[in-house]
Amino acid sequence: MEVNTKNFRSLSTRACRDATLRAVLDHATRHFQNIRKASMDVFAGREDHFARARAARLTALSRLPDLLEELEKNATAAGTTVHWAADAAEARSIITNIAKEAGAKVIVKGKSMITEEIGLNPALEAAGAEVWETDLGEFIVQLAEEPPSHIIAPALHKSRQDVVKLFAEKLNLHGESIPELTMLARQALREKFLAADMGITGANMAVAATGSVVLVENEGNIRMSTTCPRVHVAVMSLEKVVADMDAVADVLRVLPRSTTGQKMSSYVSVLTGPRQPGETDGAQETHLVILDNGRSKILADPVLREALACIRCGACLNVCPVYQTIGGHAYGWIYPGPIGTLLSSLLLPHTETRDLPFGCTLCGACKRTCPLSIDHPKLMMALRERVAARKTNHMGAAHALLARHPLAYRFAVGTARAVDPQLDLLPRLPGLPGLSEFVDSRHPPELKKSFTARRRKAQAKKERS
Amino acid sequence: MTAAASNNARAAILATLRQGLSDAPFSVPAPPARPASIPVGTDAWERLAAVLEPLGVRLRLAGTRAEACEHAADIARERQARTYIRWDAALDGLGLDEALSGLTRVAPGPCKDLGQVDLGLALAHGALLESGSMVLVAAGGRPRAASLLPPASVILVPKAALLPDVSQVPALFAQHGADGHQPSCLNLVTGPSSTADIELVLVRGVHGPGTLDIIGLDWDE
Lengths: 465, 221
Hints:
The complex is a heterodimer of chains A (465) and B (221). Helix content of chain A is 52%, strand content 10%. Chain A has 22 helices and 10 strands. With 465 residues, chain A is α/β, with parallel strands linked by helices. Among the domains of chain A are: 254 residues, NagB/RpiA/CoA transferase-like (Rossmann fold); 71 residues, no CATH class. In chain B, the strands form 3 sheets. Chain B has a 6-stranded parallel β-sheet, with helices on both faces. Chain B has a 4-stranded mixed β-sheet with strand order 8-5-6-9, with helices on one face. Chain B has a two-stranded antiparallel sheet with strand order 10-11. Helices cover 27% and strands 22% of the residues of chain B. The longest helix of chain B has 21 residues. Chain B contains 6 helices and 12 strands. By secondary structure, chain B is of the alpha/beta class. Chain B has one domain: NagB/RpiA/CoA transferase-like (Rossmann fold, 3-Layer(aba) Sandwich), CATH 3.40.50.10420. At the A-B interface, helix 2, helix 3, helix 4, strand 1 and helix 5 of A face helix 1, helix 6, strand 9 and strand 10 of B.
């Protein structure tokens, strides 16, 4: 998808004014928070399970190159072809080549942020394949030609009426109630599953010790995409590897609960290589694409590499006051919310993401909610420091200078009070680039008269009375 | 992209990762011990029924093979099934085919041949009491499609398969490897297929089965 993070300010300003979006977000984020809280309240040994999941992920990061080699060795031994892609273009090229060699005409996809990240669908379509997103939410946003707006609920921003209209226009399928619409999607996509030559999924985890890919879902579309087509391609970002099945168990204890409040998602699949002799279903050809796309460099960063531990439960989005206000699309890329801000800032060129880390109140709700205790605010501050170090903000520097000298600060404020109390003339002064933006984004409280002046006025009033 | 390019990417990625860890090494403190699992006790079936109930799944207990077959026939009737697919060897001894003699049994095969099957029966290798998850390990005669394509799914759970929680899955996974190979597919199935992608309204049966019934085989093998 097109990267639009540069326009984060204007997109979020526009989103703030969208009352319908606000109502949808309010309902959805409260819903997710409530079901998560209900589950966590009765989760025995919760903190120990969180600590174990964090250790499983951080241990994997601390041994990342060794585990990736072990994964490659064991996946290959199980019959999976392993590919390495340095960036999105290489990953697209690898997967389109697999599709071409397999003669894939119809491709079904499970919900996967990583394939959104690399912009896979247009590449496959350009190669002549028919590509179907099969997660209901992803299917809806694919028909609407929109990006997903939440990590786990891609069509969060769409109402039932939107879906009624969309299905009628794009599929000539007519339904009214939500169960009816869901069944229509089932029928439409069932045909595609049965006709598909290739299934493409992401990976929640990949297991170094066994060469397996672990996929977590509720709908069954990922099971269909890996059971019916002849070829299965799993695309994983390199940090998704874990050491062994014990680490998988530790993460599974936490992930569904933190995502949707479920003790376990409806379906977890542990897939190891192609189908074995005697099996009548499952892919006959399996591929694993290990994607870097900028992540390997993050591992050298002692502060920011913590973001690579994320298990994509989406809980930080639901508690974030900024996400609750502006929704997912305003972030300008596929990863929204606190973790999205971190990932986008780390994966995209810094010139594209300058404003993102400033779209945060530093309230810490994300850190408190994260089952892995990722310290989003600390990471956000580190990103801000780097943004500030890269490009001098003259107005910010001038403000900081004044703030360090109380007399000069009072003089400046006094001048502003006398000449431009609402700060609406100052930004129009020529030759002061950045002033308008500086003033606009700060919304200082109305400048009051000085305490002395107000005291004098109050005394005069008292004397008059 | 050529194999050489993929090899180049591999070398570059691993070198960058190793350099990163060399420049900024880190160690991870040992985590706390995994909280003890609640053992499978004499109330295991009650616990399983209680955890399945909110998922819309009914547990039917059978004390004998004949009773298990009766349950299967009842479920087939309730779901108005006319065709069924089942796992082979694992379920051969139960006499299910006689109990379902009014239905047509469909042989395992490619998905496209199974799209219209009404009922699927499989056997759990594990049933996790904490979450209500059924562990299914696919192999020859144990098709993945049986618990996926039909709109109604039935999973039979031997008493010996009752396990406390997901921490037992690694051992189960290792146990089902054969000749040095890992099982090609292990599934945890926890309730029917579901979605809440439209206005967060829960709908069961979006791509997989809309109903799941469990038959507990309450006898010692």
